[in-house]
């Protein structure tokens, strides 16, 4: 499957306002909860005006999908090449966890995440993209990082893919937990340091004596 590329949308343009309205409506009620009429009303334009920018609601959804699955962690790995930064060991994992934490508590990314969860059960394309960009791509890159750490005797030798899965899974769970608590208007203060605590706990279980 080709890599999803986010479309460049001019800030404050009508097209951006349409997408923003659609994202908010889909985050609340999924794909079916965002009719063209509701989108137009939220933007404050005539429904017919939407068709100057999008052919139909499906095109709006596809544009949103490109933003959803343009790999939200890609920037992390671009700015911190694995071959160069993985030798930082625990510090590298803390930076990765901090990136997920920022996404977790960012309101726009939370809306994206809500749309993903709402569509996973009945949209095969969303499931395939989710598995590729939210799971497989991250596991592949993290496993490469762990392999390099093993080569530098920072962590004990083990299956790097399994290690990547063990590291990534709790971070995803914490992101889901924060979302669910936000939906129910519950405080998330208790989870403010859980990402860092996870890295501490994980590192203690895999690190060699030399890396402590």
- How would you characterize the largest beta sheet? none
Low-confidence stretches: none
Helical coverage, percent range: 55-70%
Question: What's the β-strand tally?
Answer: 0
Corresponding CATH superfamily of the largest domain:
Tetracycline Repressor, domain 2
Specify the CATH class of the largest domain. Answer: Mainly Alpha
How big a fraction of the residues is strand? under 5%
Molecular shape: elongated
Q: Which structural class matches the secondary elements?
A: mainly alpha
Instruction: List the secondary-structure elements in sequence, H or E.
Output: HHHHHHHHHHH
| First-residue to last-residue Cα separation | 41 Å
List the domain count as a whole number: 2
Average residue-wise pLDDT: 90
What is the overall number of helices?
Answer: 11
Which fold name corresponds to the CATH topology of the largest domain?
Answer: Tetracycline Repressor, domain 2
CATH architecture of the largest domain, by name, is Orthogonal Bundle
